[in-house]
Recover the amino acids of this structure.
């Protein structure tokens, strides 16, 4: 400890900086004995002006390097756009993209629909469009459709590609495919059904995409063209992660075609159960064109998403797109297939019992091992943040408490019997802040449910915007807090994708549905929920009337007041007058829909992630009532900005 030591910092930009020190001259913070050997820990302050970024540090003595680590220099807080910093309060729409109907889509919302929605929404005053997670799912297993149980969170769901927008779609060979009787019948079915038929949508999209790919590949990707140059650059930048997904998708499709079990890598033949197995490399070599097809899909999806994001910028939206990062990936995912050391497949992420899930929740998502994450220099989480901030102005982190702790449930155990495992929250928040600034992305943390105060304060100090849901913002006496009391550094909303719509809530349709599918363990619990709902509805009417958010023609007694348009709109405008910097509203409530898109705690008891919107986006914004509501929201937000 009396010898001179040298710290060599190799910066991300290639600069090399050094600092010499003697350990005994530094502050000693820890002394420990392990196997009769005494160890000291010293704190070394670097007198170096290091730029923000990811740097490498090597420690040596007598020219002998004996330790190496990653050094991350991060800003103090996440990025916030200047207009928001200056007090502008904005509103936007949240949408589950797969739910969108339009005159042209193929039974599922696509990136062209998203661009159109951005244009229409911006035209009536919206400053952002919030999306469900648009992560890559499973082309060969389309019914594994939960956006919160993806195959890879770094890459995109190819089903959102607008096939008709790809160069080559008009080729005669492609038109022969899409104009066949069988294709047209399946497409018509996919467009007309009430719920997204993922099997039908995948069938027509894959058939058409493969035909388009053959044309595009021959025209551009086998020649020296700017398209080929761009494609190769995309593949190179995607690295092993992109290759892993493409090989996985090709392999899963191959196994399915052979009639073998293929829902995920746990049931693959033994030689294919790991990305790094020689048999997988052999498969890739023998099926290069199939792998290239799935690389092509990711390239096209990224381009179309970027075009939609650019539409938001051109329209002058303050935020534009905000994306959603799921808390994990499913057990059979490509993300785990290629990095098994990082994930604990003998456990699952979930949540303890709460108001959204009285039995606790088991999400079937293997958690990351915090020790392995550290050993890998946090690169997996860096890549996740960076890729999900791409082509957007904001990122919502689902279950943001995962940065501090996760509820782990051992395989075979009940969700209520799980326990918390903690993560290096300060390191993760630093990385989040760094990527937020690099991508100029405002960060929203979904902090619902059981949230320790330490994470709330840490998130606020680190510039992460809180998530405030009206129905959960209640005082001890049962009254609802005025949205004017919400923190400015927050995004507020009336409902979420895990909750009933306004009509569903008011008419207790969610409780009726929960009873039908056996969600409540006892009749007493259900009756308590009905009684609580009745009291809450009365408190809501009292709040809205007290603030003048609804007129006297809306009743004051819940026993005689049903949900109608004035009450619906009054609740939304009430929120718009609040202090949250961002207000998110659901298209379902604009359309006065009554069915939820997801019921937490269910699997196949309800068609989760499938329920479509009831109206095309083209006609939606032609409605006088919707334009009038949008105008009121914009006015209320401007008033709140000035207040």
């Amino acid at each position: 400890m009396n010898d001179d030591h040298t710290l060599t910092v190799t910066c991300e930009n290639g600069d090399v900086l050094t600092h010499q020190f003697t350990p005994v001259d530094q502050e000693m913070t820890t002394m420990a004995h392990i196997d009769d050997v005494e160890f000291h820990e010293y704190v070394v302050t670097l007198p170096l002006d290091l730029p923000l970024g990811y740097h490498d540090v090597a420690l040596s003595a007598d020219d002998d390097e004996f330790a190496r680590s990653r050094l991350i220099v991060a800003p103090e807080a996440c990025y916030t756009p200047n207009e928001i910093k200056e007090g502008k309060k904005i509103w936007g729409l949240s949408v589950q993209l797969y739910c969108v109907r339009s005159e042209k889509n193929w039974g599922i919302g696509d990136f062209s629909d998203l661009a159109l929605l951005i244009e229409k929404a911006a035209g009536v005053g919206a400053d952002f469009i919030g999306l469900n997670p648009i992560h890559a799912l499973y082309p060969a297993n389309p019914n594994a459709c939960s956006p919160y149980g993806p195959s890879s969170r770094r890459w995109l769901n190819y089903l959102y590609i607008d096939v008709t927008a790809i160069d080559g779609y008009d080729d005669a060979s492609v038109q022969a495919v899409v104009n066949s009787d069988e294709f047209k019948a399946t497409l018509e079915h996919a467009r007309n059904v009430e719920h997204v038929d993922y099997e039908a949508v995948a069938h027509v999209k894959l058939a058409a995409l493969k035909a388009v790919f053959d044309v595009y590949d021959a025209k551009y990707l086998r020649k020296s063209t700017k398209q080929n140059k761009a494609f190769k650059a995309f593949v190179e930048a995607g690295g092993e992660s992109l290759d892993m997904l493409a090989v996985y998708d090709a392999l899963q499709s191959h196994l399915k075609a052979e009639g073998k079990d293929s829902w995920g890598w746990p049931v693959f033949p033994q030689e294919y159960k790991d990305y790094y197995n020689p048999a997988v490399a052999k498969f890739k070599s023998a099926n290069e064109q199939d792998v290239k097809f799935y690389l092509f899909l990711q390239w096209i999806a990224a381009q179309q998403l970027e075009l939609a994001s650019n539409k938001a910028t051109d329209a002058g939206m303050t935020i534009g797109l905000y994306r959603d990062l799921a808390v994990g990936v499913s057990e059979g995912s490509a993300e785990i297939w290629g990095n098994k050391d990082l994930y604990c497949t003998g456990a699952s992420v979930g949540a303890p019992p709460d108001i959204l899930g009285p039995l606790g929740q088991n999400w079937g998502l293997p958690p990351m091992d915090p020790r392995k994450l550290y050993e890998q220099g946090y690169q997996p989480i860096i890549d996740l943040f960076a890729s999900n901030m791409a082509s957007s102005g904001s990122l919502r982190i689902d279950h943001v408490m995962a940065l501090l702790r996760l509820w782990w449930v051992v395989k075979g155990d009940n969700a209520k019997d799980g326990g918390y495992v903690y993560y290096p929250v300060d390191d993760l928040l630093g990385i989040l802040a760094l990527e937020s600034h690099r991508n100029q992305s405002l960060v929203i943390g979904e902090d619902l449910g059981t949230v320790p105060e330490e994470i709330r304060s840490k998130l606020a100090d680190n510039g992460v915007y809180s998530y405030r849901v009206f129905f959960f913002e209640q005082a001890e006496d049962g009254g609802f807090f005025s949205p004017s009391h919400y923190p400015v550094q927050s995004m507020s909303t009336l409902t979420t994708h895990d909750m009933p719509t306004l009509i569903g809530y008011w008419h207790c349709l969610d409780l009726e549905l929960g009873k039908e599918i056996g969600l409540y363990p006892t009749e007493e619990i259900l009756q308590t929920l009905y009684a609580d709902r009745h009291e809450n509805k009365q408190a809501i009417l009292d709040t809205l009337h007290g603030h003048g958010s609804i007129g006297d023609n809306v009743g004051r007694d819940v026993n005689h007041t049903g949900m109608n348009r004035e009450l619906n709109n009054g609740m939304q405008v009430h929120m718009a007058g609040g202090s949250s910097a961002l207000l998110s509203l659901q298209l379902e409530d604009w359309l006065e829909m009554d069915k939820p898109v997801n019921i937490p705690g269910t699997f196949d008891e309800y068609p989760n992630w499938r329920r479509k919107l009831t109206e095309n986006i083209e006609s939606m914004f032609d409605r006088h009532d919707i334009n009038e509501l949008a105008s009121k929201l914009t006015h209320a937000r401007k008033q709140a900005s000035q207040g």
In short: The mean pLDDT is 96.
